[in-house]
Amino acid sequence: MTEAVTFWLDNKISSGVKVAEIGQQLLVSYRDRFYVVEGGAARMKGSRPLHYSKSSLPTVWKKAMRGIQPPTPALPPEEDACLPRTTVTRRERTHMEKPATIQATQPETAPAEAQARQTLATQPAAAKKTRPRSAIPKSAAKPDAQSMVVAACPYCNHKNQLPLEKGKNGKPFFTACTRCERDFAVRFVAVTAYQAQVAAFT
Q1: pLDDT digit string (tens) for 131-148?
Q2: What highest taxon heads this organism's lineage (predicted)?
Q3: Choosing a second label site near 115 at 20 to 30 A (CA), which of 19, 84, 97, 165?
Q4: Which are the contacts of 190, defined by CB distance < 8 A and separation ≥ 6?
């Protein structure tokens, strides 16, 4: 005589036929599929209920359908994998020992060696060999001063050389091209070297 089993499946209560039983687990047939039910709910595989067809049914359940029960203490490892198991894997954090505790556990080194280390650590930083500032050449510290700035004429594209003092303050000024003699506006802009921005008049 078949026994009806009600269990939770796909967010609803379903009713199937009990086919086999191993311990607290039931093998239930529902809509031509087999589900392993424990605690009133179908076993899940990820987010979907785990189901088997007649051909893909694990060996342990095929034997249980014929009335052969597995040994009571535990199932064989390959068959035990078919049944649900709730295990939690916890990783333990390994703590590194502090160097001070390691030194405390090691045998003491020679007192002279420890004293030499301590004197090296307490020596002032001024004892380090440094190059005096006066030895650095001044030419390496500052680039050569720029005296002339090139300004291209917006009309004839002729490169005019203008003295830096004329527009060093950053304000625009007017100048005439040495080739076409037309007036244009110039403003010096400090980049890595001074460059000239020009504007034409119509």
Answers
A1: 555 555 554 455 567 788
A2: Bacteria
A3: 97
A4: 170
Strand partners, 161: 150
> Of all helices (H) and strands (E), which one includes residue 77?
helix 77-80
Q: Concatenate the DSSP letters of all residues of 140-199 into one string.
A: HHSPPPP-EEEEE-TTT--EEEEEGGGTTTS--EEEE-TTT--EEEEEEEESSSEEEEEE
**CA–CA gap between residue 60 and residue 63 (Å, rounded):** 5
pLDDT tens digits along 75-109 = 444 445 555 555 566 667 766 666 555 555 555 55
Rg (CA), the chain: 45
What secondary structure letter does DSSP report for 72?
A: S
Mean pLDDT of 175-199: 84
Calpha distance 23→110 (Å, rounded): 69
Rounded Cα gap, residues 100 and 133, in angstroms: 41
Residue spans per domain, the chain? 3-72, 148-199
pTM for this one? 0.35
Q: How distant, in Å, are the alpha carbons of 12, 31, 47, 70 from that of 38?
A: 16, 18, 16, 17
Tell me the sheet residues that pair with 171. Answer: none
